[in-house]
Structures are given as C-alpha cells and as structure tokens.
Design goal:
The protein has about 450 residues and is α/β, with parallel strands linked by helices. The chain has two domains: about 35-100 and about 350-459, Aspartate Aminotransferase, domain 1 (Alpha-Beta Complex); about 105-350, Type I PLP-dependent aspartate aminotransferase-like (Major domain) (Aspartate Aminotransferase, domain 2, 3-Layer(aba) Sandwich), CATH 3.40.640. It contains 14 helices and 16 strands. The strands form four sheets. It has a seven-stranded mixed beta sheet, sandwiched between helices. Helix 3 (about 125-135) packs parallel to helix 10, helix 6 (about 220-225) packs parallel to helix 7 and helix 11 (about 355-375) runs parallel beside helix 14. The radius of gyration is 21 Å and the shape is globular. Bound molecules: pyridoxal-5'-phosphate (PLP). The site of pyridoxal-5'-phosphate has 15 residues, from helix 4. Homodimer. GO terms for molecular function: glutamate-1-semialdehyde 2,1-aminomutase activity; pyridoxal phosphate binding; transaminase activity. It comes from Chlorella variabilis. Pathway: Porphyrin-containing compound metabolism; protoporphyrin-IX biosynthesis; 5-aminolevulinate from L-glutamyl-tRNA(Glu): step 2/2; Porphyrin-containing compound metabolism; chlorophyll biosynthesis.
Length: about 450
C-alpha cells in the first residue's frame, strides 16, 4: 500500500481561488483589441473594490493583462464595454447552461418580479424546485436551499459533524468547495495529521481538522482513515474536478470512496456545485452510478441567480433546523426570484436532446482544439464530459492537481490573450474548466477551433 506521500508545500493542496498563481506570462504584445473602456472602468474599480473585483479569479492575475469588463450577454455570446463580441466559454462560471439571458428564463423572472422578489415566508415555488431536484438527483430525498455554493458546502460540513459527532473532514488537493475556513487548507508535509491554511485569518484549529488526499488515489484516502480511526466525519470532493482544470475521476476511485466511507461510518459528499445538472440530468452521481450520502449544488440550479442547495437522505436532512438540532438559516434563502430561474432552467434541460447537444458540441470543440495543438506542435491534453471541458498545455495524462501543475501556464496566458483577440472568451486561468451551453452552435465551435489554430500557430 502506498501511504500518503510526504508532500512539499508547493505540491500540496491549492485552493487557487484563494491563492492566485501569478503567471510569468507577459501581457500579449501588439494587441489589436480595443479595450479602452474596460481599462478605464477597471482602473476606477481598483480604487473602489479590493483588486477591482468582487471575486478574485475575475481579475486575470493568472493570465496577465487586464480583465475584460462586460456590458451585456445573450445566448452563447458576451459583449464588453468597448462593444467587442466574444463566444463565451465561461458562462458566468457555469450557471448559463441554457444560454445567457435566455428568453424563457427572462419571461419567468419578469412575471415573478411583479409578484415580489422576496417573501421571507414559505412559497410554493420552493416545493416545485425541491421536487425537481429530488426526482433527478439519486442521493437527494430532502433538500435545503441556500444562496451560494460556499454556503451549501459549509452547511454540509456542519451536517456531517452533527450527524457523526466527529470533527475531521477529508478533501482533495486542487478541489474547491467555496471560501469557508475549513476548505482553505493545504496539507504541507503534515498530510497525515495537520492541515495548514492557505489563507491568513483561518484559525489553526479549523485548518487542523481538514485532511487532504490526492485525487484519483484511493490509497491516500485509506491512509488518512487509518491514521485517524473513528475521527473522520466525512469526505467531500468534486465528482469531476473543474477547479484545477478539467480532471475526470475513474469509476473505481469513486467506488473506492463510497466503500471506505460506508465501512468507516463517514458521510460521503459529492460537491456538485459545478457538475450538478451539467454532467447529466441526475448530476455526476447518475453519470457514474455512484450515490453519495449528501450532495451540494449551486450554479446551474440558480439559472443565473444566487442559489445553492444541499440535500441527502431524509435521515440526515432531518438533522437540520427546525426539523432537528443543526442550525442553518438564511433571510433570502428560497426567494421566489431565484426559485423561478432555477425551475425554468431545469425545465429547459429536461427537454429531449438537451444533454445530447451539450455532449456533441463539447466533444467537437475539444477534439478540434487538441487536433489543432497536434498540427501546430504543442503538447496538450484534454477532455470533456457533457457540457464541461478542459485542456492543459502538457503531455498528460492529468489525473490530479499534482499532474496539472506540469502544465505550461505561461503559454496558456499567451493563448488566452490570443483567443480574446480572436473573439473567444475562455476562463482566465489554466486551472479552470470550460463550459458550453444549449446556445452554442456547431458554427460557434468551428469558429473557435479556427481561432485556436491561428493562435497556436503564432505561439
Ligand atoms: C463554484 C464552486 C463552489 C462555490 O460556489 P459559490 O457559489 O461561488 O460560493 C463550491 N464548489 C464547487 C465545486 C464550485 O465549483
């Protein structure tokens, strides 16, 4: 058996949304793109908002250059403050799966606005969305709506602890579960016992209760359970990683996690904030046929409004207040506007051909980009599942964050800038997955592949 390997600080967990890797990529040379307004607005923003943004990765720190300031979005496209148009593969980081500013979602929202945007009291729309989630997601028998993925994940850890009476949790290097204290942790060399925080402000005692293992390495998980007998409340993971680039799991790995959690009496959580309703109608758990005990959701489930959710077996969910003693609340949770956007989005996704479309366009995109890299002599590996994809500038294969770090991030920075100039908006980091939507056409995909070929040739 391979014990949890000693890790250097650099090789350990990286919650990259808290600690941005600054790329050495020089901002692109001779830019044809006019970004005058973007630059003016961002300059002012830096005096008003920390780093000029309200969420770190938007600031383009890991690709170099200035962020593009958006003006409006529609379907598969976004327009910036200088009126440049881009084919968008970020989709607001996942929610825009039926296309930006979808007419049907917008109509439903307009109708709801007339009836009020927040009640702070029960409304039937909560039941409607809850029934859709329960019907689709294998592990969910009861659900609690919150306002973000972060909130869903931090609540689920409290639930794991309340249910088991244990304190330690296991996460994986490179997996992101929002910015709550207990997730901003890297293992350092003390992987078996002590977690060290990635961010100042996280109490050492909180960090110490978070253990980290390596993705797709079941032995590293078993070693943690062995060294912390009877102390692990639960384990949380991205069932397909998107937050250190696109990294799929092996089915054996997921099955191994299911088995070890059952054996050790620990709660298994699939964090499906990114993969939920994107990988398949019943989320990644349906796609892989492995059922966790609890599931966190976000992004797609809010259809572009702020929503998160967590759910699981009734036995567990009955622990949550006011049914049970575990406290968790929210003034705007389950608000009718957010519920309406989620309901309409899930309704559109249930129509025949929706996931087939996502699968088809995304496969075409990633195989086109990989072919273009091969033709132009660049080492690249990548893949996709349904409407989620990613590629790395390295030979691969990439099966964990440790592998992903072999990627040439300086080259990615130049590629990213080149693609912007070609009218394609990619996530501004090598360590992010990309997203397609029902609005992306084969024509959009082919234009994107042509753009990639042009840029790759120039690198
Ligand atoms: C985005 C994300 C989160 C955090 O959700 P927010 O809504 O940004 O708080 C948590 N887990 C995963 C897997 C995510 O992709």
């Amino acid at each position: 058996m391979q014990a949890a390997r000693p890790q250097t600080q650099a090789a350990a967990t990286r919650c990259r949304k808290a600690t941005i890797v600054r790329s050495t990529a020089a901002p692109a040379t001779a830019t044809k793109l006019n970004t005058k307004r973007s630059e003016e607005i961002f300059k002012e923003a830096q005096e008003l908002l920390p780093g000029g943004v309200n969420s770190p990765v938007r600031a383009f720190k890991s690709v170099g250059g200035q962020p593009i300031v958006f003006d409006h979005v529609k379907g598969a496209y976004c327009w910036d403050a200088d009126n440049n148009k881009y084919i968008d593969y970020v989709g607001s980081w996942g929610p825009a799966i039926v296309g930006h500013a979808n007419d049907e979602v917008n109509e439903a929202l307009k109708a709801q606005i007339e009836k009020g945007t927040s009640f702070g009291a029960p409304c039937e729309l909560e039941n409607v969305l809850a029934k859709m989630v329960i019907e689709r997601v294998p592990s969910v028998e009861m659900v609690r709506f919150v306002n973000s993925g972060t909130e869903a994940c931090l609540s689920v850890v409290r639930l794991m602890r309340a249910y088991t009476g244990r304190e330690k949790i296991i996460k994986f290097t490179g997996c992101y579960h929002g910015h709550a204290d207990q997730f901003l942790v890297q293992a350092g060399s003390g992987v078996l016992t002590l977690g060290l925080s990635d961010s100042p402000g996280v109490p050492a005692t909180t960090a110490a209760a978070t253990l980290t293992a390596q993705y797709n390495d079941i032995e590293s998980v078993k070693a943690l359970f062995e060294a912390n007998k009877g102390e692990i409340a639960g384990l949380i993971l991205e069932p397909v990683v998107g937050n250190s680039g696109f990294i799929p799991p092996t089915k054996e790995f997921l099955q191994g996690l299911r088995d070890v959690c059952t054996k050790e009496g620990a709660v298994l959580c699939f964090d499906e904030v990114m993969t939920g309703f994107r990988i398949a109608k019943g989320c990644a758990q349906e796609y892989f046929g492995i059922t966790p005990d609890v599931t966190t959701m976000g992004k797609v489930i809010g259809g572009g409004l702020p929503v998160g959710a967590y759910g699981g077996k009734k036995e567990l969910m009955q622990m949550v207040a006011p049914a049970g003693p575990m406290y968790q609340a929210g003034t705007l949770s389950g608000n009718p506007l957010a519920m309406v956007a989620g309901i309409k989005t899930l309704e559109i996704l249930a129509r025949p051909g929706a996931y087939e479309h996502l699968d088809k366009v995304t496969k075409r995109l990633i195989s086109g980009i990989l072919d273009a890299a091969k033709e132009t002599g660049h080492a690249m590996c990548g893949g996709s599942i349904s409407g989620m994809f990613g590629f790395f500038f390295c030979e691969g294969p990439v099966s964990s964050f440790e592998d992903a770090k072999a990627s040439d991030t300086a080259k990615f920075g130049k590629f990213h800038r080149g693609m912007l100039e070609q009218g394609v908006y990619l996530a501004p980091s090598q360590f992010e997955a990309g997203f397609t939507s029902l609005a992306h056409t084969e024509e959009d995909i082919d234009r994107t592949i042509e753009a990639a070929r042009t840029v790759l040739k120039s690198l």
